[in-house]
Write a structure and sequence with these properties.
The chain is α/β, with parallel strands linked by helices and 669 residues long. It binds guanosine-5'-triphosphate and magnesium ion. The site of magnesium ion has 5 residues, from α3.
Length: 669
């Protein structure tokens, strides 16, 4: 049997937890023994953060009343024994509702008042501003109270026409789409702009985020929802009513918001229970459902395997009463299985690659660090062994040689200084194109072009032109980082041969990933600009909101690209610093051991034995780091296993099997 979505999600999350634990074990060992520098430690921390906070967003999108909320109830909340999200006639979800779990916060409902639209701040900017939100604690163990509290997402208010216009719910140019007026001439608008439900549901605890949306064709839909939340969702479930078929407005929602995100779209033909007909046989009804699925797939241009006929209402009722047969009849399990089969392998692959790459980098880092230390130990041993039976005069000569070699080595500092100057200038040049100032300039230029065109009809063109300029900036940065790599590579070869460094050039960061992200933003915004809604951009308030949202999205891409470039450069130059430090320490050590041997000849054998023991210990560190990182990689490659027992996968903890608990520096003391 195909595992259900919940079981697959469970397996994924169990896998992630184990990966995080293995990474913790490895990184604890590396830190305890000082086998990583600050840069590598930062990389470990970033990887750890990703493993812990990975989110999986599933959005439910449809016209009004197709059964989005009911379907979410059936998939996620049936265990409460009742309907939790409002989904009965007349209880329309008025604002986007995000369900997630953040263990650092109490279970709560956070509501953003609709008036916040007037300030022009985007949802992204308002998210961290707690004061902007109305917070209600949720009583999760009382389903009745819980469901009562959540009724809040259906709340509306009546405002004057002018206020409605200012809030974006009234458009004089599109009178047909405007909401009806009450007797006093007032307009009914949503009370809230966005709702966040922090709820300790097992699936939400595992990093799932569920997005319930209000009917999208409605005038006044939040641009942030269509431009930011939907395009970044990992899967989108589009819902139709079997009783209504694909209506014109359903098609509008599909075309405007979903047609661009092909790989993770699911189409649900809900309410198949409404097709039951006392005068028809079961087979006849089934044939009718099948025919409707074919028709739907054809109209929307998706594969038939993407269309899922079901009844959310029956599924919820069946789950609440624990009736397995009725649940199968509702046909919900097929959708859940498909969601699991689509999403989880994709997530798994991303995480696996991240972990494998991270572990490999760490291992290279550790091997290099330990390799350097061991090489230096070997040199010292060779030198001391050569002293066996040597006279005092010979010892003095050797001391002089160490001093001469030290002086010769110190000449590298001038060269390193010059290298640093060139490197930092090149880096600065590479980063300037990714700066936020530069980004702002580009957006400002786009805006000037948009404003110059009549009714913003040239908006799309100006936007596409700006994206092309931004892509060029990313390409330039990539080109410059290749130049940096070339320059450093050539210098490293010289430094290695002239001064005995073992500097290693790593791959320059790939900025293509950021170009791809830019492409994603471009395609979702182009879609938006192409809509009839684009006319709304002629309203200054919407234009401002659009600009802010765009800038905040682009800033993330550029900041990440710039951070990655900087990190790589830092890691590369910190390699030089740490080797320089290590080499100096080594010269000092050589001098000290010669001095000690000079003081008492009997110390010689003792010192040699000490060095041998140190080397043995370092070898043990190397072996153990390899074991720990290999265990991490192996687990990453194995992937999630449904129903796996985490305990049985347990590796011995670092302290149980490790040769000794001594940091690298002390091991060498
Ligand atoms: N017969 C039948 N009715 C259903 C089914 N699913 C939902 N409904 C009903 O359809 C109506 C709308 O359901 P909701 O879940 O509120 O729909 P929605 O898409 O969230 O609607 P909005 O929040 O208004 O956008 C409610 O009266 C539900 O009880 C179903 O599978 N069969
Ligand atoms: Mg709803």
């Amino acid at each position: 049997m195909t595992p259900t979505f919940a079981v697959s999600l469970d397996a994924l999350s169990g896998w992630r937890t184990t990966l995080a634990r293995r990474l913790d074990e490895a990184s604890r060992f590396l830190a305890d023994h000082e086998l990583v520098d600050a840069q590598a430690a930062a990389q470990v921390a970033a990887l750890r953060e990703r493993l812990g906070n990975e989110k999986l967003v599933v959005a439910f999108v449809a016209e009004f009343s197709r059964g989005k909320s009911e379907l979410i109830n059936a998939i996620f909340f049936a265990d409460t024994g009742r309907r939790v999200l409002p989904a009965t006639p007349g209880r329309t979800t008025m604002c986007p509702v995000e369900l997630a779990w953040d263990a650092d916060e109490p279970a709560s409902l956070m509501l953003l008042p609709i008036e916040t639209r007037l300030d022009g701040l985007s949802l992204g900017e308002l998210r961290p501003q707690r004061r902007a939100w109305t917070v209600r604690e949720l009583q999760v163990d009382d389903p009745e109270k819980l469901s009562q509290a959540l009724q809040e997402v259906t709340r509306t208010r009546f405002v004057s026409q002018d206020q409605a216009r200012a809030l974006g719910f009234w458009d004089d140019d599109q009178p047909d789409d405007n909401p009806p007026l009450d007797d006093a001439g007032r307009v009914e608008v949503p009370a809230w702009r966005h709702a966040l439900i922090n709820y300790p549901h097992p699936m939400l605890k595992q990093g799932l985020v569920v997005l319930d949306t209000p009917g999208l064709n409605a005038i006044g839909a939040e641009p942030e929802l269509t431009l930011s939340l939907l395009p970044t969702a990992h899967a989108t479930v589009f819902i139709l009513g079997a009783d209504t078929g694909v209506t014109k407005s359903d098609l509008g929602v599909w075309r405007d918001h979903l047609s661009a995100h092909a790989p993770a779209r699911f189409v649900v033909l809900n309410k198949i229970d409404a097709l039951l007909d006392p005068l028809a046989t079961v087979e006849q009804v089934d044939a009718q459902i099948a025919a409707q699925c074919v028709e739907t797939a054809r109209t929307l241009g998706v594969g038939l395997d993407r269309v899922f006929p079901l009844s959310a209402r029956q599924a919820l009722a069946a789950r609440v009463s624990g009736d397995e047969r009725a649940l199968r009849r509702s046909r919900l399990p097929a959708l859940e299985a498909a969601l699991g089969a689509q999403l989880l392998p994709q997530r798994r692959q991303v995480l696996e690659q991240t972990v494998l790459g991270g572990a490999q980098q760490l291992e290279t880092h550790v091997a290099r660090r330990l390799g350097d230390s061991r090489r230096q130990l070997a040199e010292q041993m060779l030198e001391l062994r050569g002293l066996r039976g040597k006279s005092g005069a010979k010892l003095r000569l050797m001391l002089q040689r160490v001093d001469a070699e030290t002086a010769e080595f110190e000449q590298c500092t001038v060269r390193l200084q010059a290298l640093r100057v060139v490197h930092s200038r090149m880096l600065k040049d590479a980063l300037v194109g990714l700066s936020s100032d530069r980004l702002r300039e580009e957006v400002a230029q786009m805006q000037t072009q948009m404003n110059a065109s009549l009714l913003n009809l040239g908006a799309k063109k100006a936007f596409i032109a700006m994206c092309a300029r931004l892509r060029k900036l990313l390409d330039d940065a990539q080109q410059r980082s290749a130049e940096i790599r070339e320059m450093l590579g050539a210098s490293f070869i010289k430094l290695n041969s002239e001064f005995g460094f073992s500097l290693l050039m790593t791959q320059a960061p790939e900025l293509e990933r950021f170009s791809a992200e830019l492409g994603l933003i471009e395609s979702s915004y182009v879609q938006y600009l192409g809509l009839t809604q684009a006319l709304r951009l002629s309203q200054p308030r919407f234009m401002e909101q659009f600009r802010r949202m765009l800038v905040s999205k682009l800033r993330v891409v550029f900041e990440n690209a710039s951070a990655e470039l900087e990190l790589w450069n830092k890691a590369t130059s910190s390699q030089v610093d740490s080797q320089l430090r290590e080499r100096r320490r080594n010269f000092r050590r050589r001098r000290e051991s010669l001095e000690r041997v000079q003081a008492a000849a009997s110390d010689l054998e003792l010192r040699i034995a000490e060095l041998e023991a140190q080397d043995e210990r370092l070898h043990g560190f190397l072996r153990r780091s390899h074991e720990l990182l290999e265990a991490l990689r192996e687990h990453a490659r194995a992937g999630p296993v449904a129903g796996s027992d985490l305990i049985s996968l347990r590796m011995p903890l670092a302290d149980e099997a490790e040769p000794s608990h001594v940091p690298l520096r002390r091991a060498l003391a």
